[in-house]
Design a protein that fits this description.
A hairpin with a 2-residue loop joins strand 23 (345-357) and strand 24 (360-371). Strands 1-3-4-8-9-10-11-16-17-20-21-23-24-27 form a 14-stranded antiparallel beta barrel. It has a single domain (2-412), classed as Beta Barrel (Porin). It has helices at 2-13, 171-174, 274-287, 388-392; strands spanning 40-51, 54-56, 78-88, 93-100, 104-108, 118-119, 125-126, 128-145, 148-165, 177-197, 202-209, 212-216, 218-222, 225-226, 235-239, 242-252, 255-264, 270-271, 299-300, 305-315, 320-329, 336-337, 345-357, 360-371, 374-377, 393-397, 400-412. It is mainly β.
Length: 413
């Protein structure tokens, strides 16, 4: 199966192109580099170029210009990196370091005459989100018997971000709101098991990653004026737990089939900084005459994310191979937040790999995403208030897409 081994770089580059297909899921948190044979290292980059726009409900409270109800393209290009080192210490013991940037978001609503998501009067700025994370996983593996391995270890993760709300759609209370989430790092863990038969290039793995809990310092203001409605407290935020199932097998001497299934527990994710929460409680108390006083979240996902991918790779010569796959992502609910108005995707990817020598390769890939249509809402849609749903709905996002590009270099030693 010498030729099959040369295939793995081009096959593995496509699943890593997740790039915000749903919620803030970005890298896919792959364990595959750790399952490579012998000593191995790789480094990669993904660049994603999304195009996301929608039509705003033509209501006076949402738009100033009834003849322009377009949001403009509010999705920004992003890039993220990964690195992996795997060492085979003995026949049974292995060690790995995996670095990735698992979750992220970057949006910026452009200037429009409707003033819905852009403040044309005071700041001349648009609604903006920039969230960044980075992970370093330390993985130890042990083979109790042939073909079977158990693995696990600690995960150090850092997160930081900023959110700015601008425009008429956020009402006078929140137009000009800024939240700066200070960088913080916390510890989680991963565990899994794998089964491999190298002679037929069979590889199966089940990997669990724990959620990671934070208490973040968040600086909040309105147009630069600090907010202190209540005493400042840190904001609780959990990055989600997840499960990855990877499978691949040789189906001929020169051809490999592969798949990935992923679950991410976004349903429990929410963000409510202290001062934002206090203002939302005042607004909801006034709007309902005191029947609802709990307020609402800055951002909240309401369904878990499920994704599936299946593909095939083929070795054409000793130096060249290629792969292709199709993918599906469920998204995290409809309606969705104005801070992330997409609902999953379908995707088609193509990858190619060049092996100058047997022990190293260069792989590149491109993937096209058909982003799911979704209605955006202002954060109050899911509140237990009669008649709130049609008021909360703000815009329809349809026929959007994303193109992502990836480059990876791998070395066996």
């Amino acid at each position: 199966m010498k030729l099959i081994n040369l295939l793995l770089g081009s096959v593995c580059i496509l699943p890593m192109i997740k790039a915000n297909a749903a919620a803030m899921d970005q890298s896919g948190q792959s364990i595959l580099p750790f399952l490579e044979k012998g000593n191995y290292s790789e480094a990669g980059v993904v660049i994603a170029d999304p195009h996301v726009s929608g039509e705003i409900e033509n209501r006076p409270e949402l738009v100033d210009d009834p003849y322009n109800t377009n949001t403009g393209d509010m999705a920004s290009s992003v890039e993220f990196y990964n690195f992996a080192l795997k060492l085979q210490l003995t026949d049974r013991l292995s060690f790995g370091l995996l670095y990735d940037q698992p979750f992220g978001a970057k949006i910026l609503y452009p200037q429009q005459s409707n003033h819905s998501y852009f403040d044309n009067h005071i700041s001349n700025e648009g609604t903006h989100v920039d969230v960044k994370t980075q992970n370093l996983s330390v993985v130890f593996g042990y083979m109790p018997f042939s073909h079977f391995q158990i693995y696990g270890g600690p995960v150090y993760q850092e997160v930081n971000g900023s959110v700015s709300l601008r425009g008429k759609a956020y009402t006078e209370a929140f137009n000009g709101y800024n939240a700066n989430f200070k960088k913080d790092g916390e510890i989680g863990w991963l565990a899994g098991l794998s089964y491999q038969i190298p002679e037929i290039a069979l590889k199966a793995a089940l990997t669990y990653r724990s959620k990671i809990k934070y208490k973040l310092q968040v600086d909040e203001d309105i147009f630069g004026q600090p907010l202190q409605i209540i005493e400042p407290t840190k904001t609780k935020l959990d990055t989600p737990q997840s499960i990855n199932i990877d499978f691949q097998t040789g189906i001929s001497q020169n051809t490999l089939a592969y798949s990935n299934l992923r679950w991410v527990n976004w349903k429990n994710f929410k963000s409510r900084p202290a001062q934002f929460g206090a203002i939302s409680e005042i607004l909801m108390t006034e709007a309902t005459g005191g029947t609802y006083t709990d307020g609402f979240d800055l951002d909240h996902y309401h369904k878990d994310q499920y994704s599936a991918l299946i593909g095939v790779g083929h070795q054409f010569t000793n130096k060249w191979s290629a792969s292709t796959d199709i993918g599906w992502d469920s998204g995290t609910g409809n309606p969705a937040s104005t801070l992330g108005p997409t609902k999953g995707s379908w995707s088609l990817g193509l990858g190619a790999q060049f092996n100058p020598e047997e022990n190293y390769f260069i792989a590149a890939g491109v993937k096209y995403f058909w982003l799911g249509d979704v209605i955006s809402e202002d954060g109050t849609y899911y509140l237990p208030i009669d008649g709130i749903k049609p008021i909360a709905e703000q815009a329809n996002f349809k026929n959007n897409y994303m193109i992502a590009y990836a480059l990876k270099i791998g070395y066996r030693f």
